[in-house]
Design brief:
Largest sheet: none
Radius of gyration: 26 Å
Order of helices and strands: H
Helix content: over 70%
Distance between the termini: 89 Å
Number of helices: 1
Number of strands: 0
Shape: rod-shaped
Structural class: mainly alpha
Length: about 60
């Protein structure tokens, strides 16, 4: 009886961390989305540099 009880406790312990791992997986895509947002302004900054280069060329 002790062995099956221990197995049951191990299964319960394994099930608990799985629930905790789910929100971590949800947080991961959020972290991936943040760098994408940071990358967008960088792309906007690049054309700005090109426009300044054109302005200097006109001068």
């Amino acid at each position: 009886m002790l062995l099956p009880l221990n197995k049951g406790e191990k299964m319960a312990k394994k099930a608990a961390p799985k629930k905790k791992a789910a929100p971590k997986k949800k947080a991961a895509p959020k972290k991936k989305a943040a760098p994408k947002k940071k990358a967008a302004p960088k792309k906007k900054a690049a054309p700005k540099k090109k426009t300044t280069a054109k302005k200097t060329a006109k001068k």
